[in-house]
Automatic annotation (TrEMBL):
Signal sequence, renumbered to the chain: none
Gene3D superfamilies: 3.50.50.100
Oxidoreductase as UniProt keyword: yes
Superkingdom to which the source organism belongs: Bacteria
Names of the cofactor(s): FAD
Membership in a protein family: Belongs to the NADH dehydrogenase family.
Keywords in alphabetical order: FAD, Flavoprotein, Oxidoreductase
Identification of the protein by name: Dehydrogenase
Domain FAD/NAD(P)-binding span(s) in chain numbering: 9-288
C-alpha cells in the first residue's frame, strides 16, 4: 500500500463559521487531506453584514488568517455531490474526489417570488454580494430617503437599527410580533430604542407588493419606500437537492443525530444547512461553530472506525445590536426559550461585540490547536415530531 492510499480525503463544502471550523478541527489527524471549497477567496462574517451595509463595519476576513496549515482552499462552487463516484463537481468543471464530505453551505437570503415586485425591487441583506449591492444603492440615496426594512426578526431589527443610527428614515414592517422568540421585556426594550431613533415600527402589517419607490401593505396602504430591504428569513442553497440527497422542506440536508446524511454516511452536514432528524437547530453562528466541530468529529470517528457521538449542544438566546452603542442580549434557557431577563445598553453592546469576535477567534484557535473548541452542552432538542418526519423531500 502506498502512502497515498493511507491518506483520507475530506472535502469541506462552504467556508462559513461551521465549515472553516470543521476544516481546522479535522487537523486533529495528520493523515487527512483537507480541501475547503468556497465561492469567494475571503471569509464572510455574516453577523456583520448589517454593519457592512450601513458603512459601520467590514465583513470579510482573509482565509490566510483563519485556516490551519495544509488546508487547501479552492475558490469555486460545488454544483453536485456525486455520491456514486465519490466526487464533488465544481462550477469550473473540476471534480474533487473524496472519502468524506462535510456539507457546510450555510444559508441564503430569501426573497419570495410570491410577493409581486420583491425579487425585482427589494434588496436582500443576508448574503455578501447582495449586501454589497445594497450598500452601493444606499450610498446613492440622500439620508432622508424613506427606507423600508421588511421582516421583524433578528436580521430585520439589526438592519433597521443600524441604518436609523446613521440618520436614515426607516420603517420596519414586521408581519407579526417583532422577534416573537424574545421575552416581552426584551421586545419592549428594543421597541423603545427603535422609537427613540425614529424608526416607524409596523408590527402587524404585511408587505404584499414592492415597487421601485413604494411598498403596498395587506390593507392596501401604499407607503413611500425609495429603498426596500428584504429580511424575512433565510433559505438554503439547493446543493443537497441537486445531489439527490434527502432534505427537509427548506432544503437542509437531512441527517441522523451524528450529522451523517440519512442517504450516505460519507456526507456529513453542519451549520445552517443541516437538519438533524428533521429537527434543525436555530440558524445561527452560535450553533454553527460547535456544529462544525461535531461534524468533523463524526468524520474522524468514521475514519477511526469508532462510533460517532450524537450531537449535544445548547443554544442560549440571541443578542441583537441596536446600532453601535447598544444591544439587547436576551437571556434564555438551554433549549433557547427566552426568560424574562435581558441585558441592554452598553453592556449588551460589549457582549454582542465579544460574541462576534469569539466566533472568529475560536476558528483561529482551532487552526492553532485542533480540538480546542468547547461549547455549551445539554440543550434539550425536541424529539423529531411526526410532522417533521414527513417534512422531507425524496431524492
Ligand atoms: C445580518 C446578519 C446578522 C446575524 N447575526 C447573528 C448573530 O448575532 N448571532 C448568530 O448566532 N447568528 C447571526 N446571524 C446568522 C449567522 O450568520 C448564520 O447562521 C451563520 O453564518 C451560519 O453559519 P454557516 O457556517 O452554517 O453558514 P455561512 O456562514 O452562511 O457559510 C456558508 C458558506 O458556504 C458557501 N457556499 C454556499 N453554497 C456553496 C457551494 N455550492 N459551494 C461552495 N460553497 C458554498 C457560502 O458562500 C458561505 O461562504 C446573522 C446573519 C445575518 C445575515
Amino acid at each position: 500500500m502506498t502512502e497515498h492510499d493511507t491518506r483520507h480525503k475530506v472535502v469541506v463544502i462552504g467556508g462559513g463559521y461551521a465549515g472553516t471550523l470543521a476544516a481546522n478541527h479535522l487537523r486533529m489527524r495528520a493523515d487527512v487531506d483537507i480541501t475547503l471549497v468556497n465561492p469567494r477567496p475571503d471569509f464572510v462574517e455574516r453577523v456583520r453584514l448589517h454593519q457592512f451595509v450601513a458603512g459601520t463595519g467590514d465583513a470579510t476576513i482573509d482565509y490566510g488568517t483563519l485556516l490551519g496549515e495544509g488546508i487547501q482552499l479552492v475558490v469555486d462552487s460545488a454544483t453536485r455531490i456525486d455520491t456514486a463516484a465519490r466526487a464533488v463537481r465544481l462550477a469550473s468543471g473540476r471534480a474533487l474526489s473524496y472519502d468524506y464530505v462535510i456539507y457546510a453551505v450555510g444559508s441564503t437570503a430569501a426573497v419570495p417570488s410570491s410577493v409581486p415586485g420583491a425579487a425585482e425591487f427589494a434588496f436582500p441583506v443576508a448574503e455578501f454580494e447582495a449586501a454589497r449591492r445594497l450598500r452601493a444603492r444606499l450610498a446613492e440615496l440622500p439620508v432622508d430617503a424613506p427606507v423600508t426594512v421588511v421582516g421583524g426578526g433578528l436580521t430585520g431589527v439589526e438592519t433597521a437599527a443600524e441604518l436609523a443610527e446613521q440618520g436614515r428614515a426607516v420603517t420596519l414592517v414586521c408581519g407579526g410580533a417583532m422577534v416573537s422568540s424574545w421575552s416581552a421585556p426584551g421586545r419592549r426594550y428594543a421597541a423603545r430604542w427603535l422609537s427613540r431613533h425614529g424608526v416607524t415600527v409596523l408590527e402587524a402589517d404585511v408587505v404584499t407588493e414592492v415597487g421601485p419607490d413604494a411598498v403596498v401593505l395587506a390593507d392596501g396602504t401604499v407607503r413611500s419606500s425609495v429603498l426596500t430591504i428584504w429580511a424575512t428569513g433565510f433559505g438554503v442553497p439547493g446543493l443537497a437537492v441537486a445531489s439527490g440527497l434527502r432534505t427537509d422542506t427548506l432544503g437542509r440536508l437531512l441527517t441522523d443525530e451524528t450529522l451523517a446524511s440519512v442517504d450516505d454516511d460519507r456526507v456529513v452536514a453542519t451549520g445552517d444547512a443541516a437538519a438533524p432528524s428533521g429537527h434543525p437547530l436555530r440558524m445561527s453562528c452560535q450553533a454553527a461553530g460547535a456544529l462544525g466541530a461535531q461534524a468533523a468529529n463524526t468524520v474522524l470517528s468514521h475514519i477511526a472506525g469508532t462510533a460517532p457521538a450524537v450531537i449535544d449542544q445548547a443554544l442560549t438566546g440571541s443578542c441583537v445590536s441596536l446600532g453601535r452603542h447598544t444591544a439587547m442580549r436576551q437571556l434564555a434557557r438551554k433549549d433557547d426559550t427566552a426568560v424574562n431577563l435581558y441585558i441592554g445598553g452598553r453592556l449588551g453592546a460589549a457582549i454582542k461585540e465579544f460574541t462576534c469576535k469569539v466566533a472568529v477567534s475560536r476558528i483561529r484557535r482551532e487552526a492553532r490547536e485542533p480540538g480546542s473548541t468547547a461549547w455549551v452542552k445539554g440543550g434539550r432538542r425536541l424529539e423529531q415530531s411526526a410532522s417533521a418526519a414527513r417534512a422531507v423531500t425524496s431524492p
